[in-house]
Amino acid sequence: MVHATETDAKPQDATKPSTQSAAIGNGANTLSGNDVVLSYRGGIIENRHNVHAAIVNASGKLLYTIGDYRRMTLARSSTKPIQTLAILETGAAERFNYDDADVALMCASHSSEPRHIERAQAMLEKTGEKEDILTCGGHPAQNAAINRAWIREDFTPTAIYNNCSGKHVGMVAGAVCLGATAHDYYLHEHAMQQRVYRAVEDISGLTKEEVLWTVDGCNLPTPAMPLPNLALMFARLADAADLSDGPSKETLDQRTQHLARIHKCMASYPGLVAGEGRFDTALMTPYNGQVVGKIGADACYSVAVRASPHADLAGMNHGAMGIAVKVEDGNLDILYAAVIETLEQLNIGSSEVRQSLDGWRYPKIVNTAGVVTGGYEHCFKVRSVV
After folding, report:
1. How many of the other CB atoms lie within 10 Å of CB of 221?
2. In this predicted model, what pLDDT tens digit does every residue of 190-230 receive, in sequence order?
3. I need a surface site. Which of 20, 55, 177, 233 has the fewest CB within 10 A?
4. Could you tell me the strand order of the sheet in which 212-215 lies?
5. What is this structure's pTM?
6. What gap in Å lies between CA 259 and CA 87, rounded to an integer?
7. Domain-by-domain residue ranges, the chain?
8. What gap in Å lies between CA 301 and CA 339, rounded to an integer?
9. Phi, psi of 375 (to 5 degrees)
């Protein structure tokens, strides 16, 4: 947990749900305050998706909560910006002349578009290693059009086509810079992974014993931690970006400079962080540098929000903030809707920016004939604890 304030935070209980109702809309019971997103068809509730979130500032102060905000959560690919921090701290970017777009790809869960693959291949070539050193394996692309083309061509994707290939190439480069063997860069005991562990512990505010680790879908270690600590990592990412634009930018320590660069790279190249039609790209593009977001598998999401002159829902300016959201059942459509609704309730960014994302906030359920058969209703409230 975030040690500074979490134990002191006592958000008010949500309104108790009324008797379960089969219908919604037009004044019908919606279980408002039950921290769920409802999906419905024809006005009939089909599913209730529990939402949990923590919002903190860069010092670790808990500001707002939704649901079980202390939930121990696997960060999955939301860890990538901090894994990239560990890579940058090896000196890999300088040694192999990786530019800002390359750093963005290290943070990516990309769509295997040509721009992603070509960049990953070029990055790997600079290390002098071959593709067979990558241990992530191949999988279908997260871009449907690319998958259809692969099927027509009877093409089997290899490791460089993996959505995590940028991160894996970066870790190979980091291993080379550390003077370690590169072929086993993915193992727990490897010097590269030990760097990642220490970076995650430091930025999350947790001890070695408090962060739990397991193996991610791409064959690298991934951490689990309470949501406030996941949010803290992203608050510090945003805070570093703010500091790098401030009057003391020339005196910033190297880690802060690296974090600021990661934020800048993700914000500058949202299409490399995800891809065409993907949520990360769609979120970051209209916010134009104020917000950086990163998906984690099974419906985990983290957002770094830079300080803004606009007051949030409590009429306050908390400086840089981090948001970590988890949807209990792993539904990604619900996650995306919940993230945008959370930004709306917090009053993050201009109303024009938020309205531009309403398609994600209220996605339509459409059947195979193209008929709209249902939608979603947000029945959770962001609660202030300050």
Report:
1. 18
2. 999 999 999 999 999 999 999 999 999 999 999 999 999 99
3. 20
4. 72-74, 221-226, 212-215
5. 0.90
6. 11
7. 6-51+364-384, 72-361
8. 8
9. -170, -155
